[in-house]
Automatic annotation (TrEMBL):
Species in which this protein is naturally found: Melopsittacus undulatus
GO molecular function: alpha-methylacyl-CoA racemase activity
Name assigned to this protein: Alpha-methylacyl-CoA racemase
One Pfam short name: CoA_transf_3
Catalytic class of the enzyme: isomerase
EC numbers, comma separated: 5.1.99.4
Catalytic activity: (25R)-3alpha,7alpha,12alpha-trihydroxy-5beta-cholestan-26-oyl-CoA = (25S)-3alpha,7alpha,12alpha-trihydroxy-5beta-cholestan-26-oyl-CoA; (2R,6)-dimethylheptanoyl-CoA = (2S,6)-dimethylheptanoyl-CoA; a (2S)-2-methylacyl-CoA = a (2R)-2-methylacyl-CoA
The entry's keywords: Isomerase
GO CC aspect terms: mitochondrion
The encoding gene: LOC101872688
Keyword Isomerase: yes
Keyword Isomerase in annotation: yes
Family matches, as Gene3D superfamilies: Crotonobetainyl-coa:carnitine coa-transferase, domain 1, formyl-coa transferase, domain 3
GO biological process: bile acid metabolic process
Length: 383
């Protein structure tokens, strides 16, 4: 796999950093998640695929010293705390990079390492709001609406941080040097919204929220309910595709207002909605599948893996516990990701194994254990 041989130490966090670590693990990196001790029974990391867990108390001097040793032998450290936490633990980048100048020290936060909000708590919705992107989302005459916690936490957070790490790893092959990555989710989500900024002079966003082409204003970029209570998604933007939509709906474009007549959009939406409501989702798929009308079913999580297209591409995978999840993307032709089929690690399951691998002696491990700096948890105790 592409990242085989890359050693990552991920300090356990809530949602974005775990995704970042899972991406690296899926593509072959050896990822050790450092969990807190004393731990809660269940990890908050639901994206632990392919990782190993080491339970270590960083607040104890021996614990932070152990993390320093791990960092010395690691390529990447991912830390998910607000600014200042690592410095308080004596584990700031100045310390760790001095000990291992090749270390890539990735700091994944909401607000970044500097600025007025650097020390403040926050979550996806706050970062999305501060990036300006949230102001663009939502239906007409309604409050801004955050699309789950996908944009800041994951797209602008976990994925952008992974991009930073891969870029820094590549650069290190030339310079031999590590560096610090300041991955702010506010900036990450702003960056992925560059299209919104760069397309402003096209007139795409001139109208109030919820009345533009791509923000639920247009009848041809919308979801519609079907007679069986399901939904179809319509994205027929280009005129030639719009024409196919009109045809599939059984309408005659000569008798309709022009596609871009804004004032007619509300009326056209109602018309489309009443037509979509007359057939089931499957019936609409029969009509639109194989056309360029840009109409697809809105699949539920129950249906998505068994949809023919997704089945053909094996886009969803099943682990040893029969849990279904998305296959890592993108597909690399020679060195694709090979996600682990095993269950996620229990907290402290690999403490001993990891410490041995990173050069700790059995005696040192025994001392850390008796001093309650580490926890060792055998899988059978969790069954
Ligand atoms: C699914 C839910 C998650 C929702 C995601 C949400 C929408 C997000 O947006 S996540 C993005 C959050 N933001 C960031 O990550 C940005 C950077 N981080 C921060 O800003 C902060 O970390 C923070 C604001 C997120 C949290 O602040 P906090 O004050 O708690 O922490 P920090 O200031 O960063 O300091 C950390 C302190 O911890 C110490 N530490 C760390 N590691 C160690 C260690 N190994 N040893 C010792 N000490 C350690 C560190 O030193 C700091 O100490 P000090 O403060 O003294 O300096 C999930 C959200 C909640 C989950 C549920 C919940 O957890 C309860 C259950 C738990 C159970 O186990 C599983 C089920 C739960 C119901 C669980 C389910 C889900 O996971 C959640 C709902």
């Amino acid at each position: 796999m592409a990242l085989h041989g890359v050693r990552v130490v991920e300090l356990a966090g809530l949602a974005p950093a775990p995704l970042c670590g899972m991406i690296l693990a899926d593509f072959g990196a050896s990822v050790v998640r450092v969990d807190r001790t004393p731990h809660s029974a269940v990890s908050t990391d639901v994206q632990g695929r392919g990782k190993r867990s080491l339970a270590l108390d960083l607040k104890r001097p021996l614990g932070s010293a152990a993390l320093r040793r791990l960092s010395c032998a690691a390529d990447v450290l991912i830390e998910p705390f607000r600014h200042g936490v690592m410095e308080k633990l004596g584990l700031g980048p100045d310390v760790l990079l001095q000990e291992n100048p090749r270390l890539i020290y990735a700091r994944l936060t909401g607000f970044g390492q500097t600025g007025k909000y650097a020390n403040s708590a926050g979550h996806d919705i706050n970062y999305l709001a501060l990036s300006g992107v949230l102001s663009k989302m939502g239906r007409k005459d309604e409050n801004p609406y955050a699309p789950l916690n996908l944009l800041a936490d994951f797209a602008g957070g976990g994925v952008i941080c992974a991009l930073g790490i891969i870029t820094a790893l590549y650069e290190r092959t030339k310079s031999g040097k590590g560096q610090i990555i300041d991955a702010s989710m506010v900036e990450g989500v702003a960056y992925i919204s560059s299209f919104l900024w760069k397309s402003q002079n096209l007139g795409l966003w001139n109208r109030p929220r919820g009345e533009n082409m791509l923000d639920s204003g247009a009848p041809f970029y919308e979801t519609y309910k079907t007679s069986d209570g399901k939904f179809m998604a319509v994205g027929a933007i280009e005129p030639q595709f719009y024409e196919q939509l009109i045809k599939g709906l059984g309408l005659d474009s000569d008798k309709l207002p022009s596609q871009l007549s804004f004032s007619d959009w509300p009326k056209m939406k109602k018309k489309f909605a009443s037509i979509f409501a007359q057939k089931t989702q499957a019936e609409w798929c029969n009509i639109f599948d194989g056309t360029d009308a840009c109409v697809t079913p809105v699949l539920s999580f129950d249906d998505v893996a068994s949809h023919q297209h997704n089945k053909q591409r094996r886009s969803f995978i099943r682990n040893d516990q029969e849990e279904i999840s998305p296959r890592p993307a993108p597909l690399l032709s020679r060195t694709p990701a090979v996600p682990s089929c095993k269950r996620d690690p229990f907290i402290g399951e690999h403490t001993e194994e990891v410490l041995l691998e990173y050069g700790f002696t059995k005696q040192e491990i025994a001392k850390l254990y008796s001093d309650k700096v580490i926890e060792i948890r055998k899988p059978k105790s969790n069954l």
